[in-house]
Structure formats: structure tokens, C-alpha cells
Design a protein that fits this description.
The chain has about 110 residues and is mainly alpha-helical. It is built from one helix and no strands.
């Protein structure tokens, strides 16, 4: 036996709720539209929030990388200056003079 309820199984293909209209009432349609609008706004705000966080993260990463690059450029300049100073000292200490005749007797025979 079929139980008495809203939807009962019978040999008929139509449910037992023929008194319900096929089209939802206007208030239900408006309610559904409002919910849909609210859901769209929530999704847009969430998406915007996620995008904003991603942009902030990229900006922070870019700022950190810029600071690192500036530091490395400063270190590079300082190292280049040190290399130049060391090279000049080395060249100064290794001077070679050509074409000057040396005295055979040494410095004790210098005339005043």
C-alpha cells in the first residue's frame, strides 16, 4: 500500500502535487534573485581579496628583491674599488726601468 504523503508512488507518472503551480511565486523568484546577487557579490569580493593578497605578496617579493639587488650592487662597487687599489699597489711595487745604465761599482762609489 502506498502511504499518504506529498509524493506517493503509483502507476501514474504524475506526482501527487498537482495543486502546486509550475511557476514559482513572484516573492520566491525575487528571493532567489537576491540570493544569486548576494552570492555573486561574495564571490567577487573573495576573488578581489585573493587577487589583492596575491598582488601584495608580489609587491613584497619585488621590494625584497630590489633591496637585495641594491645591496649586491653596492658590494660589487666596493669590491671593484678594492681590486683597483690592489692592482695599482702591485704595479707600483713591481716597477721595471729599462734603458738606464747601472754603475758597475755599486752605491759606495757615488760622488757627492
Amino acid at each position: 500500500m502506498a502511504s499518504k504523503g506529498r509524493f506517493t508512488r503509483s502507476n501514474s507518472t504524475k506526482p501527487d502535487h498537482e495543486d502546486v503551480p509550475d511557476v514559482a511565486p513572484a516573492w520566491l523568484q525575487k528571493f532567489a534573485a537576491d540570493i544569486l546577487i548576494s552570492m555573486k557579490q561574495i564571490i567577487e569580493e573573495s576573488t578581489a581579496g585573493i587577487a589583492h593578497k596575491a598582488i601584495e605578496k608580489i609587491q613584497n617579493t619585488t621590494e625584497n628583491q630590489s633591496a637585495i639587488i641594491n645591496y649586491m650592487q653596492k658590494q660589487n662597487r666596493q669590491l671593484n674599488e678594492r681590486v683597483i687599489k690592489l692592482e695599482s699597489r702591485t704595479m707600483r711595487d713591481n716597477l721595471m726601468f729599462c734603458g738606464i745604465k747601472e754603475e758597475q761599482n755599486g752605491p759606495e762609489n757615488l760622488k757627492n
